Amino acid sequence: MTQKASAATQRRSVGRQLRAAREECFSDRADKELPVADAAAALRVNPRTIRRLENGEVKPNYTLVESACRLYGLAPEKTARILEMVDQADEDEWHEKYGQDIAPWLVQLLDLEAVADRIHIVESLVPGVCQTPAYAAALAVKSPKRVDDPDYARRLAAIRGQRAQNVFGRTENCVTLLLDEAALLRQVGGPKVMAEQVAHLRELDTKPNVSIHVLPFASGATAAHKGGVTILEFNDSKEPDIAYVETYLSGHYSVKPSMLVELRVRCASLLTQAIQLKEYTP
């Protein structure tokens, strides 16, 4: 694993250790949410800052982490180990120069998809990590916030390209993609752009570690129409699997076993109704 890749997992590890320390510190409390507010008040930050830090969604602030360790009564040697991880988690990530173009809730996904051992994606449109530059540019012009930013399409294509390299440039991971048939037929950018996009998907599907499936219209209404989902899985037992669900205005992450089980069951059910891309003809 590269140093840049390790920064993402180091952030998650720091967050898990701080959460465990906070919960142990407040173990006599029945309300599990109130200690977050108490800790935030003691550290003079917003409770959301504590949650984002514990979820590994942001770079850990050295001073804040040090203060939290002291508040939770951690031993000096334990604090030193956590702070060493904070230094490693502070490595710059490739996407930081595109900060204005990336929704804040996407940052963790970009970090973790680059190091996940298995990625399962269910989408009704071609997901960003699989988009060609022309397809991404066609979507970019639809953004009402970018009408006065002619360079946005180029930056978006660069982001898509780096994501693709991080995911499909590896051979030790496994990627399973389930697309609604509409993703292959909707004319984003016109026939030429779509032909190029579908050809790109077929090329990705030839990789031994990539499997792309299509959920045909004949399947009728399915669970896929309730929204897209990405599940990231890790071989390291210390690195919990995580699910990502995106809405129009935000993204939601969860490591809850119950939610992961439910989403895995949904994905498995959809796969039984799908056909492999190599067998698909419009």
UniProtKB/TrEMBL annotation:
Pfam families registered for this protein in UniProt: DUF5753, HTH_31
Highest taxon of the lineage: Bacteria
GO molecular function terms listed in the Swiss-Prot or TrEMBL record: DNA binding
Domain HTH cro/C1-type: 17-79
Xref: SUPFAM superfamilies: lambda repressor-like DNA-binding domains (SSF47413)
SMART domains: HTH_XRE (SM00530)
CDD domains: HTH_XRE (cd00093)
Signal sequence extent: none
Entries under Gene3D superfamilies matching the protein: lambda repressor-like DNA-binding domains
Name of the featured protein: Helix-turn-helix domain-containing protein
Organism annotation: Kineosporia babensis
Upper classification of the organism: Bacteria, Bacillati, Actinomycetota, Actinomycetes, Kineosporiales
